[in-house]
Write a sequence for this structure.
């Protein structure tokens, strides 16, 4: 299956293609943590993840054509 990934803001530096938006090929039963491993995203880095506009967790199952947005959490003061 293929999913569209968007690494937003400062996280774009971790893109395997050098682009903010790219496609990733994954096995049919993949979950978020497998996607992060596939793109070598640093495991310890804080991030928020949305799949098709809904907040996702590491074991959220992905489907072909999903749009995954990964961005740094906002901090306020």
């Amino acid at each position: 299956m293929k999913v569209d990934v968007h690494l937003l803001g400062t996280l774009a530096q971790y893109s395997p293609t050098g682009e903010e938006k790219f496609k990733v090929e994954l096995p049919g039963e993949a979950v978020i943590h497998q996607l992060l491993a596939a793109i070598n995203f640093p495991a310890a880095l804080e991030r928020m993840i949305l799949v098709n506009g809904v907040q996702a967790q590491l074991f959220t199952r992905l489907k072909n054509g999903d749009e995954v947005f990964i961005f740094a959490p906002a901090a306020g003061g």
